[in-house]
Amino acid sequence: MKDFSKVGFSSRSSSSSSRPDKRGGFSDKTYRRDRDQYPERDSRDVRPNREKDRSPENFVRLITTKSGVSERVMHEDQCRVLEKCGSCPSLDISYKNQLIQKTADLKLRVQKAGSDFSSVLVKDCVESEDRLGYRHTVKLVVSERLSLGGRSFQKEGNKRWIDLGFYRQSLNEVVDIGRCPIQSNTLNDVMGWLRTGIRLHNVSVYTPRNKTGLLQSVLLRTSRHTRQTLLTFIVTKADLATLRPLARDIAEKYMNVQGIYMQVVAPGRTLNSDEEKQNENLTLIVGQDLLEEKYGNFIFKFSAASYMPVNPLLTSRIYARIEELMELSGKETVVDLFAGSGGISITAAPSAREVIGIDCSPHSVKDAIRNAKINEIKNVDFYEGKVDEVLAKLNAEKRLQKADVVILNPPRLGCEGKTIEHITELAPKTIIYLSSFIDTTFKDLKNFKKAGFEPEFFEPFDSSPGTLNYEVLCYLSKK
Ligand SMILES: C[S@@+](CC[C@H](N)C(=O)[O-])C[C@H]1O[C@@H](n2cnc3c(N)ncnc32)[C@H](O)[C@@H]1O
To answer: Which residues belong to any copy of the Methyltransferase domain (predicted)?
Structure first.
């Protein structure tokens, strides 16, 4: 276990050279100089707020047309690549108005979804207590710039410029996100060490044009509670000889880095969510394989391969709200579908008779079982497999034929196969659907409605301030 009182930079290396030191490590001074090339702020024009632009309709229009947002609120954490990156179109709109905008956006989508939902109440968007620095998991593309301002780096010997970021909208170019204001400081610090380390350890970067190079992207996840961080290098081939010195150096320099992994993915191929979940080619290079996070009063340990929510403080709030909506008296059977590492199951368990959690990821189920043990929860059973298959099996074996409450939190495309049929066979009084992609959720809600489950309200939660994303709790009851 690492000593978390020692967070931040280590001062163990005294070398000030920009080359690796005798042990192959790089110096703090080099790191700081590299970091200063990516300033956090930039000066921008502040345009006056105009009262007439503040109606919800205007906000929806402003974000969808992208033409001249007229309310700009400068705050000290302004992002220097706001427009280039494009991920946070409402970062410089006041937070109060971001919430109004998201509520209005949901109302519009509910209206558009048709007459099935037109009379359903849409509640106000619940705020995120962390408005900046809330993002605790991210996947970043690694790219190497070969020239800057007309100067070629290659012609100047071993100088290199490494970018970590996202593909620029509609262009095949990576925008380095600098010190990203919506990202936790821990992740921003690790990114700084990464840029320096990749450069000084001479790790080659994959270039789609030439189809050469080793490092494609990095997955980072960190804990708000302990700052423990796990890092995964996504590479084109297993090359531990190259990656191990870099991994050792980063783990030694940055005390929060708990474990560093390598994952091999075919060159240039996008890592789809199934591959991320299966993680067959995941190898631990240095350190330990778990980080510890806290939601509400419960402790959770996550491995690098299981699903981990992005905004921890808001996640605690959503779990607490789900538990409240379940109205449990201690006699109920609760079924938690797409249960991940067990967050909802474990939060609900103390108020229920029993909880059954299902997820297809073996890593998440392993984490969920461990998390139940850590929190001394004994009335939860987790099952691994596809939701529709496991529900059918549990029903056939008479292990699960009835439930009082079903909570489901599926991935982007919603429910597959006979999932909805199997849920309605359990005859729950309440169904709670937590959705990150409301447009695809309407399809499932229509099927629930056909089976007699009416949506009573939609409650949005601002999981990603500054961006257009939010999550929605849909509360359904049997009519
Ligand atoms: C949005 S996450 C749910 C997270 C979880 N509710 C939590 O609070 O951490 C979606 C989960 O669904 C799982 N999953 C995706 N497709 C599935 C399927 N067909 N059957 C079972 N689980 C699935 C993924 O492994 C992932 O853990």
So the answer is: 331-425
Residue 246: both structure tokens together: 């870099």
Pocket lining: 314 vs ligand 1, CB cutoff 6 Å: no
Here the ipTM equals: 0.99
Cα–Cα dist 207/215, whole Å: 9
Helix or strand holding residue 475 (H, E): strand 471-478
Supply the pLDDT for residue 151: 67
CATH architecture of the domain 311-478 equals 3-Layer(aba) Sandwich (3.40)
Please tell me the residue having the least CA distance from ligand 1 atom 12.
338
- HSE, side-chain direction, 13 A CA sphere, residue 417: 12
Residue labelled with tokens 């729950």: 428
8 Å CB contact between 379 and 353: yes
Do residues 456 and 430 touch, judged by C-beta distance below 8 A?
A: no
In a mutational test of the pocket of ligand 1, which residue from 294, 307, 345, 394 has the highest number of ligand atoms less than 8 Å from its CB?
A: 307
Is the shortest distance between the CB of 342 and ligand 1 below 6 Å?
Answer: no
- Whether 180 is in the pocket of ligand 1, judged by its Cβ within 6 Å, is no
> Which residue, by CA, sits nearest to atom 4 of ligand 1?
340
Q: How far apart are CA 264 and CA 281, in angstroms?
A: 6
- The domain ranges of the chain are 135-294, 311-478
**Strands 137-145 and 215-222, how do they pair?**
antiparallel
Token pair for residue 165?
A: 């970021």
- Kind and range of the H or E run holding 325: helix 312-326
Q: Give, as one character, the DSSP assignment of residue 123.
A: P
Nearest one of 424, 414, 404, 412 to 335, comparing CA atoms? 404
**Do the Cβ atoms of 53 and 274 come closer than 8 Å?**
no
Question: Per residue in 205-221, pLDDT tens?
Answer: 998 888 899 999 999 99
CA angle 57, 59, 65 (to 5 degrees): 100
Which pLDDT score, from 0 to 100, does residue 154 have? 62
162 vs 197: CA distance, rounded Å: 10
Higher-confidence position of 45 and 333? 333
Q: Which helix (H) or strand (E) holds 394?
A: helix 387-396
Q: Report the C-alpha gap between 303 and 384 in whole angstroms.
A: 16
Per-residue pLDDT at 449 exceeds 60: yes
E strand or H helix at 287: strand 282-287
Q: Whose CA is nearest to atom 25 of ligand 1?
A: 361
Predicted local distance difference test score (pLDDT) of residue 72: 52
Task: Show the tokens assigned to 318.
Answer: 């959503």
Q: Please, what's the b/e burial string for 322-344 (b: 16 or more CB within 10 A of its CB; e: otherwise)?
A: bbebbebeeebbbbbbbbbbbbb
DSSP 133: S
Domain 135-294: CATH architecture, name and number where available: Beta Barrel (2.40)
- Computed over every residue of the chain, the mean pLDDT equals 84
